[in-house]
Amino acid sequence: MKGYDMRLEKLTEHMSKFEMKPREPERITGVLAELEKTWRRYPDLRLGQLIMDIVPNECVRFNIEDDKMLDAIRAFGHKGSDEE
To answer: What tens digit of pLDDT does each residue of 68-84 get?
Structure first.
């Protein structure tokens, strides 16, 4: 647990140095709800496949902010809606 505490302390120090605000934990519920809705639309995909299909670019996928990921999940989930 000591290593985790040190990483958390360094992260907190880094965030205060650059005046970064902590992320809101409430965002998690919305992202996961949208991901679940989209995944249920494509149940044959494994989770990793779904995420890679939603954001194919590895670099973007790694660094994407949660609000942008939510937009990408929604866009992917609505693909083909006009055809149905």
So the answer is: 999 999 999 988 665 54
